[in-house]
Amino acid sequence: MNIVGIIPARGGSKRLPGKNIKLLAGKPLIAHTIETAKKSKYINKIILSTEDEKIAEIAKQFGAEIIKRPQELAQDTTKTAPVLLHAVEELEKTGYFPDIVVLLQATCPNKPVELIDEIIEKLINSDNDSVFSAFPICCTMAMWKKQFDGKMQALYDYHTRPRWQNAAEECEMLYGETGAVYAIKIDAFKKCKDFIGENPDIVTTDVKLIDIDTQADFDAAEKLMMQNK
Description:
The chain is an alpha/beta fold. It contains seven helices and eleven strands. The chain has one domain (3-135, 176-228): Spore Coat Polysaccharide Biosynthesis Protein SpsA, Chain A (Alpha-Beta Complex). The chain has helices at 29-38, 53-61, 80-93, 113-124, 164-169, 186-192, 215-228; strands spanning 3-8, 23-24, 27-28, 45-50, 65-68, 100-104, 130-139, 144-146, 152-154, 172-185, 200-204. It is globular and about 60 Å long. The model has no long low-confidence stretch (mean pLDDT 91).
C-alpha cells in the first residue's frame, strides 16, 4: 500500500515565531516528527508541506520530501484539510497515488512511532474509514464548565441535582482528540475533504502528548523530552 505521512509546517507563527525550526532538545521542531515517521513500519513516503524556504531546506536535511504550498494556503486562517488535499493532488501529478493519508502534526513532537503504527494497523484491518489518536475523559452527570467570562455553568439541571452516587456510577467515557496523528483512507479523504471520515475510530494513548502553540508549551515539551531521554 502507498501510505504517505504529511507534515504541515508553515513559516508564519505569531504566538511563537519560527517555532517549526526552533531548536527543541537539540533539534529543529520539525525534525522530531520526520525522524519518528521514518521509523514507521508502514509509512513509505514522508512529505512536508510548506511555503517557507528555510523550513523546506531543514526538512530535506532530515529526510522529508517537500511540497511547496501556495501562499493562500499558508495564512493564519488556513485550515489543515485543504493543505493535505493540495499535497495529495501534487503527489498524484507525479504518479504517486496514496491509499492512506496520515496527518502528522509537527507541533506534537513526542508522539511515539508505536502510536502511529497502531493507528495505521487499525485502519488497515477494519471497516473504518479513518482512525485518530485520542485521550479518555471521564464525564459524570454532574459536570461543570468555566465560561470565557469566568463564570461557572452547570451541564445539568443543578436544581434537581442527582445523588452523587448515581452521578459517579453513571459516568460515561468521552474522548478528546490529541491532535497528533490522523489516518484516513484515500476514498474517504477525497469524499469528505477532511482528515476524519464518516466512520472513524480511535486509538487511545497514555502518553502525555504536548501540542506546542506558545513558548510555555515549548518549554514544557522540551523538559518532558529531556526527561524521557
